[in-house]
Amino acid sequence: MLDATQWFIVACAALALVKLVFGSGAAERLIALNVLSALALAFLVIKGVDEGRAIYLDVALVYDIFGFLGLLAVARFLRDKPMDDDKE
Q: Quick check: 69 and 81 in contact, CB under 8 A?
């Protein structure tokens, strides 16, 4: 069951990556990046449970902290930019 879940997460990550590359606006790409980060976190947690190693959970925690700080930095950068798709 965990193997099937890992493959499902990889498939969802591929779809999120497509949305990240071909997204129409900055906000849409930021959301895709956040979803991709959450899927990577879920993959690390499931991999840690599957192999029975706690180091994956430690890495997932640190990854989540840095992912959140990165998301805040990008959101702050995009705060002053217009979010209209016509003005890109």
A: no
